[in-house]
Design a protein that fits this description.
This protein is of the alpha/beta class. It has a domain of 57 residues. It is built from nine helices and 20 strands. The strands form five sheets. A seven-stranded mixed beta sheet has the order 3-13-14-15-16-19-20. α4 crosses α9. The structure holds zinc ion. Zinc ion binds next to loops. Its EC number is 3.1.2.6. Keywords: Hydrolase, Metal-binding, Signal, Zinc. It holds the Pfam family Lactamase_B.
């Protein structure tokens, strides 16, 4: 097996023996599905090839990574199966988590987004005859990393937030604006701290999809366990700035509960009223409400609307000129104590 030397963002040298693909790290690109393995240091002017040599990155360097054709697509639903496309499989895990597998039928590579439960992941992998190659963690909570070590066998690399020291088995630490490429489909790493300090999201712009963990939920957001209101609000604003047609793959089916809270703070929003009815109908049929579209969230999710909805501002008793982070904090505290 070829032995590959990587220089990480913090200057550590790692050995990686199992990728057959290319990998860019830190401020550049992480790629893992083409012919060579490449990672940059924290300096944007260098990258390290699979044989350990260091070369300058020139303006054409990104072109070394093949981008998938427009046939690459994610489904807005439970599963997509299309030759030449990445497939996303979504399945329930534990009590109310969703597990995700991203699979490239051309290369056979398969990524798990978080690992709530190794048993469920193994079942879904075995069902399809897929072999796990990558784990993409969003943050350290046990219902997101609990299956890491049970799923990490030879050939499986664990990616996770650089600003989180508690990701079991982590191999590659990712920072804000790193980009990784799964079979050429680029994913931008977004720092969306607030739920935890080191929370990241994986945004695939070409696939119009974002895997956001517990940062943003359908009609809600995660509890603020570690971050600050300003940090969390900044993260939500960044997510809010993604295109409206981005599918938001969050980690929990909390939407009905979130809907009750949303209705308590913005009951006059017609888009919210309509969406709540749709959610009730979906759940009554046993269907998931995830993924949702960012445009829906912008129109209805109170945690993205505190600075733009006068009704929400009034309901949380925001003062004239109160900033978005402060209104977000009031909403978050109110939701923490909501018994609707
Ligand atoms: Zn969490």
């Amino acid at each position: 097996m070829q032995r590959l030397l990587l220089m990480a963002t913090v200057g550590l040298i790692r050995s990686v023996s199992s990728f057959t693909s290319s990998l860019y790290a830190a401020k550049s690109l992480l790629a893992f599905a083409s012919s060579s393995l490449v990672t940059s240091s924290s300096s944007p002017s260098r990258y390290y090839t699979f044989d350990g040599s260091c070369q300058p990155i020139n303006s054409n360097s990104n072109n070394r990574l093949s981008r998938r054709s427009s046939s690459t697509s994610f489904s807005h639903g439970m599963m997509s199966k299309s030759a030449g496309s990445l497939e996303v499989v979504q399945f329930p895990c534990l009590g109310d988590n969703y597990g995700y597998l991203i699979h490239d039928p051309k290369t056979g590579q398969t990524a798990a987004v978080d690992t709530p439960c190794a048993t469920s992941y193994k079942r879904e992998l075995d069902k399809r005859g897929w072999k796990l190659t990558h784990i993409l963690n969003t943050h350290h909570h046990s219902d997101h990393v609990g299956g890491n070590m049970a799923l990490k066998s030879e050939g499986v690399k664990v990616f996770g937030p650089a600003n989180d020291g508690n990701i079991p088995g982590i191999d590659v630490r990712l920072a804000d604006n790193d980009t990784l490429s799964f079979s050429g489909a680029n994913a931008v790493v977004m720092d969306v701290g607030g739920h935890t300090r080191g929370h990241i999201a994986y945004y695939f712009p070409e696939e119009k999809s974002a895997f956001v963990g517990d940062s943003l939920f359908a009609l809600g957001c995660g509890r603020m366990f570690e971050g600050t209101p300003q940090q969390f609000w900044t993260s939500l604003q960044r997510l809010r700035n993604l295109p409206d047609d981005t599918s938001i793959y969050c980690a929990h089916e909390y939407t009905e509960s979130n809907a009750r809270f949303a209705m308590s703070v913005e009951p006059s929003n017609p888009n919210l009223v309509r969406r709540v009815e749709e959610i009730k109908a979906k759940r009554a049929r046993g269907e998931p409400t995830v993924p949702s579209l960012l445009g829906e969230e912008k129109a209805t999710n109170p945690f993205l609307r505190g600075d733009i909805s006068s009704e929400i501002r009034n309901n949380v008793c925001a003062s004239e000129g109160e900033d978005g982070a402060s209104i977000f904090h009031k909403l978050r505290l109110r939701k923490d104590n909501f018994r609707g």
